[in-house]
């Protein structure tokens, strides 16, 4: 059974940093493409970033490129999202998700999410 | 960026009625289109992928169709448990993009 468990969310002030982690199990991590999707309170879904399980390819939405860095730790089967220079508009529930196929596809598994609040 | 536009924003249907949600892409996404169902307080669940393949656990009353830029999610006979927000998503190119969501309410 695929399990994704996010951690690291919290309340920070604008300009500060936060590191999210997603512990994955139940599948071959190195063959997966993992992603982060966020949802602002009461709003829709917004894709944030994808990374290959090997960590050699990563992608970002324009609004976070240069501020967020996604990485993997294959020894721990974790995906991390380092967020710097946080803004109020980054406030959201951040979901870790796994793509269905090694070359992409829809997200077939999701974690419960970790809440990031950016406020002074 | 491929923009995904869903309609309507809210759909109110009676149990047993047919519900249709539309999703339009600003350019062709081929067959790289999924639908997700999200209930309050829960993460999204993939409902339909590759335009028309129903995910495990969802009943046959859910179906997806379309191609290129126009896609449809149909619930043939809505049940009370189908009350949720439904999102379309294209995964043909980064950035991946979602539609704005359609809230299906049961009368």
What Rg of chain B do the Cα atoms give? 13 Å
Uncertain runs of chain B with pLDDT below 50, 5 residues or more? none
The counted number of beta strands of chain B is 11
Structural class of chain B: mainly beta
**Pattern of helices and strands of chain B:** EEEEEEEEEEE
Radius of gyration of chain A using CA atoms only: 13 Å
**What's the number of helices of chain B?**
0
Task: Describe the protein's architecture and organization.
- The complex is a heterodimer of chains A (120) and B (107).
- Chain A has 120 residues and is mainly beta.
- In chain A, 0% of the residues lie in helices and 57% in strands.
- Chain A has no helices and 11 strands.
- Chain A has strands spanning 3-7, 10-12, 18-25, 33-39, 45-52, 58-60, 68-73, 78-83, 92-101, 104-110, 114-118.
- In chain A, strands 2, 4, 5, 6, 9, 10 and 11 form a 7-stranded mixed sheet that branches.
- Chain A is globular and about 40 Å long.
- Chain B is an all-beta fold and 107 residues long.
- Chain B contains no helices and 11 strands.
- Chain B has strands at residues 4-7, 10-13, 19-25, 33-38, 45-49, 53-54, 62-67, 70-75, 84-90, 97-98, 102-106.
- In chain B, strands 2, 4, 5, 6, 9, 10 and 11 form a 7-stranded mixed sheet that branches. In chain B, strands 1-3-8-7 form a 4-stranded antiparallel sheet, with no helix packed on it.
- Chain B starts with a strand and ends with a strand.
- The mean pLDDT of chain B is 97.
- The interface between A and B is medium-sized, with 23 and 24 residues.
């Amino acid at each position: 059974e695929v399990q994704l468990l996010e951690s690291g969310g919290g309340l920070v002030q604008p300009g500060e940093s936060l590191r999210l982690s997603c512990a994955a199990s139940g599948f071959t991590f190195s063959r997966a493409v993992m992603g982060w999707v966020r949802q602002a309170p009461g709003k829709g879904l917004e894709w944030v970033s994808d990374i290959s399980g090997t960590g050699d390819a990563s992608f970002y939405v324009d609004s976070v490129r240069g501020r967020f860095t996604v990485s993997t730790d294959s020894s721990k089967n974790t995906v991390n999202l380092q967020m710097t220079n946080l803004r109020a508009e980054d406030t959201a529930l951040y979901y870790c998700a796994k793509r269905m196929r090694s070359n992409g596809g829809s997200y077939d598994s999701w974690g419960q999410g970790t809440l990031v609040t950016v406020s002074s | 960026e491929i923009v995904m536009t869903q309609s309507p924003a809210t759909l109110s249907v009676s149990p047993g009625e047919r519900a249709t949600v539309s999703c339009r892409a600003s350019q062709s996404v081929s067959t790289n289109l999924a639908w997700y169902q999200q209930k309050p307080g829960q993460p999204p669940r993939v409902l339909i992928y590759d335009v028309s393949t129903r995910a495990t656990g969802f009943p046959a009353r859910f179906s997806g169709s379309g191609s290129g830029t126009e896609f449809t999610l149909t619930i043939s006979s809505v049940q009370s448990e189908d009350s949720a927000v439904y999102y379309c998503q294209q995964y043909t190119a980064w950035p991946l993009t979602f539609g704005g969501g359609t809230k299906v309410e049961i009368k």
